[in-house]
TrEMBL record:
Residues 27-142 form the Co-chaperone DjlA N-terminal domain. Pfam families: TerB. It comes from the Bacteria. CDD domains: terB_like_2. This is Tellurium resistance terB-like protein subgroup 2.
Length: 149
């Protein structure tokens, strides 16, 4: 499993078929969302419960696919050494609006338990920086997530 995940991340996206590339992008996005859940070193059930819905909304995937993607994302997150592993491919393939929607989903995960941990905030801000988002865009997404929770 680990070797397969590493192979997915190491392959050149230009040589991949569209289905493999889409899976890789979905896995990277799901891994970033899982990273927020684990940011405070506690797997919060309220945060985990919202994850399949957010994957469905953000990535337009079905519930069954979301469940298997979450498991793969947990493993990918465990095996990763930095956020860059996930953000590099997303930067290449997502447009600005898709990046903002992913950051919004990350904020929604962070606020799902009713409180924002400083580590969750740091993960989201670092990810947004790696996406080259403006501070105003980050705050706009954060405010939308706060209103939704």
């Amino acid at each position: 499993m680990i070797a397969k995940l590493k192979q997915l991340f190491l392959q050149d996206s230009k040589q991949q078929d569209p289905a493999t590339l889409q899976y890789k992008l979905n896995l990277a996005a799901a891994s970033l969302l899982v990273e927020v859940i684990y940011a405070d070193e506690d797997f919060d059930q309220a945060e985990a419960a919202i994850l399949p819905e957010l994957l469905h909304q953000t990535l337009q995937i079905e519930q069954q696919e979301a469940a298997s993607l979450i498991e793969a994302a947990k493993q990918a997150r465990h095996d990763s050494t930095s956020l860059f592993e996930f953000t590099a491919e997303i930067n290449d393939q997502f447009d600005l609006e898709q990046k903002k929607q992913l950051i919004l989903a990350m904020w929604r995960v962070a606020y799902a338990d009713g409180q924002l941990c400083q580590f969750e905030d740091q993960i989201i801000r670092r990810t947004a920086d790696l996406f080259y988002l403006k501070h105003s865009e980050i705050m706009q997404m954060r405010n939308r997530a706060m209103k939704a929770s």
